[in-house]
Amino acid sequence: MTPTQDTTVQDTPVQDKPAWQALVEHRRAMGDTSLKRLFEDDPGRFDALQLEAAGLFLDFSKNHLVRGPAGDDTHALLVELARASGVERRRDAMFAGEIVNPTEGRASLHTALRNRSERSVMVDGQDVMPDIRTVLARLRTFSERVRSGDWTGHDGQAITDVVNIGIGGSDLGPLMAVEALAPFAHERLSMHFVSNVDGSHLVKALKGLDPATTLFIVASKTFTTQETLTNAHSAREWFLAGGGAEADIAQHFVAVSTNAQAVSAFGIDTDNMFGFWDWVGGRYSLWSAIGLPLMLSIGADGFERFLDGGHAMDEHFRSAPLAGNLPVTLALLSVWYTNFRHCRSHLIAPYDQYLHRFPAYLQQLTMESNGKSVHMDGTPVTISTGPIVWGEPGTNGQHAYFQLLHQGTHVIPADFIVPLESLNPLGEHHELLLANCFAQTEALMVGKSTDEVRREMRAAGKDDATIEALAPHRTFAGDRPSNTLTAQRFDAFALGALIALYEHKVFVEACIWDINPFDQWGVELGKQLASAVHADLSAGHTVDSHDASTNGLLNRAMRARGLLAGDADSSQQG
Ligand code: G6Q
């Protein structure tokens, strides 16, 4: 098989498939039937439009789905689209280690990293499970030594601070998960994350830390990423300037990478390197050694529970029928709103402060995976693909951008994610959190009619002129869709299941849109461009090899930094 061939590519453009056309027709027939009406006409709606798997419960009844006989049931028609798009075939190919990322000629086997069964997973005729288990065992030994204080800094003191240096997939996952599971964190260890090449990030993170009790994890799949290597070099200088010697580096710097040669060239002993493999995509790598900060924080047993949660969702995804499949259902709803109801963005609203980095993590997972405009075979797509994903924790968002959700001109489907039980029970806090979450989904759906507003204002004693002037502003169209996802509480297992749920959702969307969710040429471009422009920025003479704007900005920056003094070219004004 050549890198551009993939037996799983769809044979007919998705929008030409009868299943797609049936949905176009169904959407037309549905007209502007409101959510409120759907609930009024169908008392069984909540019971029918819900799913549960791996400890997560999904209420998807507040969506524009008509329930009816075959051919007139939105969910069933969407499921038919999934079937016609070969979702099951591609899913099985992914789990089996086939090349599902043909533009990079790779398998995509994050599911093998959390394969807790006895099943082997073959890549190029070799079972990858023994190597996965070996690295996991090494991670366990190492993290237990650090956590117990057996692994010390150069002067014999236990490690107190761990600084993960990485970016993108080598940062967002571990950072999000360490934050999400903060209540289970080791008491002595403080975790820090440095990603931005902006020196302020490193300086801020290192402020107040003692080099003698600080451990750095340099996390980079390729070990060539400019930001990460720059931060790692500066961290090493900080360590040496703070009393450490070259010979002490082994105790204070470990690496997570697939590139042993570059790790060694950097000066980290490969005995202190934890490996993974090219079939683990950056944004899917939290389950690999990239998860080391999480293991250090919550312990190896906790990390294994996290893997168990991911695996439980995998088992559900690969075995549940499409109609009862949680990731498939989330993906189909996304396709429904993106392609048939023309929504352009999707809100993630975790009502859980510990999940405050989850929207940022999902932004990468979703937008780097499905921000694509060619099909698997390279032909341009003529339908919309991945929506813009954004969000912030509730209830904070309610006091900010929720205005646009309720009364703006965009309809934005939303996922409300909430634990039923708090990890920090405190007075009435959790009841209030739950009440706000549920109330928002209700208000978004039912809205408030102008007549209701008039009645309310009249009851409050307002005069007619005031009522007529204000009523339009106080009217809510409603009919805004949402999903509500609950877990008993977001512990390691539930977090694992939640992440795997969204990974598979993104994968199913990609199957339907017939795009490759596992490459990221747009991100690669950024890495190349920065290197070229970086060389120009220290050229010491005016630059004219780019467009006028870029030349002007480069020259202006050089001048401001005293690198072009006295030079009088036209870009001085730039
Ligand atoms: C993830 C992306 C990207 C990557 C970073 C860091 O899927 O490819 O976010 O993770 O660019 O790359 P390294 O781990 O190689 O430093």
Please describe what this structure looks like.
The protein has 574 residues and is an alpha/beta fold. Helix content is 45%, strand content 10%. The chain has 22 helices and 13 strands. It has helices at 18-30, 35-41, 45-48, 74-84, 87-95, 110-113, 129-148, 172-180, 199-206, 226-241, 249-252, 260-266, 292-319, 326-340, 358-370, 402-407, 429-446, 450-459, 464-470, 492-513, 521-537, 548-560; strands at 50-53, 56-59, 122-123, 126-127, 161-165, 190-194, 214-219, 253-257, 273-275, 345-350, 388-390, 414-419, 482-487. The strands form three sheets. The protein has a six-stranded mixed beta sheet, sandwiched between helices. Helix 1 (18-30) runs antiparallel to helix 4 and helix 8 (172-180) crosses helix 13. The two termini are 51 Å apart.
The ligands found in this model are: glucose-6-phosphate
How far apart lie the N and C ends? 51 Å
- Helical percentage: 40-55%
E-strand count = 13
Number of DSSP helical runs: 22
Percent of residues in beta strands = 5-15%
